[in-house]
Amino acid sequence: MASYFNEEIETLPRVALEALQLKRLKATVKRVYDNVPFYKTYLDALQLSPESIKSLADLHRLPFTTKQDMRDSYPYALFAAPMEEIVRIHASSGTTGKPTVVGYTRTDIDNWADLMARTLMTAGAHKGDIIHNAYGYGLFTGGLGVHNGAERLGASVIPISGGNTARQLMIMQDFGSTILTCTPSYSLFMAEEAMSAGIDFRNMKLRVGIFGAEPWSEAMRGEIEEKLNLTALDIYGLSEIMGPGVAQECFEGKNGLHIWEDHFIPEIIDPSSGQVLPEGEKGELVITTITKQGIPLIRYRTRDITCLTYETCVCGRTHARIARLSGRSDDMLIIRGVNVFPSQIESILVGIEGVEPHYMLIVDRKENLDTLEVQVEVDERIFSDEIKVLQGLARRIEKEIKDMLGVTCNVKLVEPKTIQRSEGKAKRVIDNRKL
Ligand code: DLL
Predict the structure, then answer these.
(1) Cα 424 to averaged position of ligand 1 atoms, centre (Å)
(2) DSSP letters along 288-301, please?
(3) Is the Cβ atom of 239 under 6 angstroms away from ligand 1?
(4) What ligand 1 atom has the least distance to the C-alpha of 246?
(5) Is 304 exposed, middle or buried (0-12, 13-18, 19+ CB in 10 A)?
(6) Which of 4, 81, 246, 306 is the most buried (most CB within 10 A)?
(7) What are the pLDDT digits (tens) for 351-363?
(8) Is 107 buried (19+), middle (13-18) or exposed (0-12) by CB count in 10 A?
(9) What is the CATH number of domain 333-431?
(10) Chain segment 158-192, per-residue pLDDT in tens
(11) Under CATH, which architecture does the 1-329 domain have?
């Protein structure tokens, strides 16, 4: 039998769950209509008012919200609460140099902690667990999101954040960590480092790993479970909607991630037509938040590809499940946990003298760490310069990319006209990672 953080809500019969969703959806539409000019304009143009929401099916009549809308509203224009009520701000990569900004009220932070505690328990965590939280702390939602949930649950959390792997391994052993939270690729990197340091995970107390924030596969799950000697579970979330804890795979079922429907309404759409797809069909996940106050979003297009099932689950939870994510409907890459859009790199390159706007991103995974090589064409003049000048330019581009996007890369300058030109959509990315 599963243990629940909030049994009543987690096992709520679907009829009651849907009634709760409708009540909350109505309140959310009213909140954004009254407080966010963007939504008011949109709804007025469609001749929709908060009162036109009479059933959950009416959700489909509402407009989508996109990452572009968030960018156009940078930084605060989509906030539905006055700044006096916003107690936390997080951000993630946008499609240009500017990040996507989200704000949380005290109630939002409280709900998030509850949902993350529920998420951790769904993965089999309980009081007495020692949660080794190696998600990054900072503007990224991973670190603080998991942290608050662990405290809310009453577990002991180690706020180790990312990096310094040798120290991570020492602490994990000495402190008796029982649960590991980090990106799946970082867990494999830890395994590698442990191996070379002669550390055996079989002598550790880790039982469960809660891995997400980037795509991974069943094959990777197998490898992680074997190398780290634990049960590896999938966690999903995105900062626009809240952060980690939007959906979580349960320990008992280990087959799809429960999406917390008392706070979020999921839909799957055809990414090109926008049509809602039936249960079980693969498409883009769209999420409407129904309890958020700081920045409620109506039909947010996540760009993540998955499918939904409402089938009952062995764990007893009634909330729908999404399948492991199988890709994106845009060109966003996740490199060492950092979201990167090719357009962001492009906007950095165009600002640099002597560099042509022709580039190629080559992503790979070496020894379980993502690598990014940026091949950039330089103009004739620069190319005929001495090697020192070229090297200086390459280091400068690497530094600008690191400063702006937070991702380390290796820049390779190439001769003019060597990057393949395209007559249609330019191919900017070669992703050699086999996930
Ligand atoms: O990655 C929040 C998070 C932190 C989730 C810790 C899980 C654990 P963002 O930086 O806004 O937020 O990136 C969100 O990451 O739209 C997906 O494309 C991707 N992503 C998140 N979880 C998974 C997952 C956090 N389990 C974006 N599988 C999302 C595949 C994932 N991709």
Answers:
(1) 30
(2) EESS-SSS--SSEE
(3) yes
(4) 5
(5) buried
(6) 246
(7) 898 888 789 999 9
(8) middle
(9) 3.30.300.30
(10) 999 999 999 999 999 999 999 999 999 899 999 99
(11) 3-Layer(aba) Sandwich (3.40)
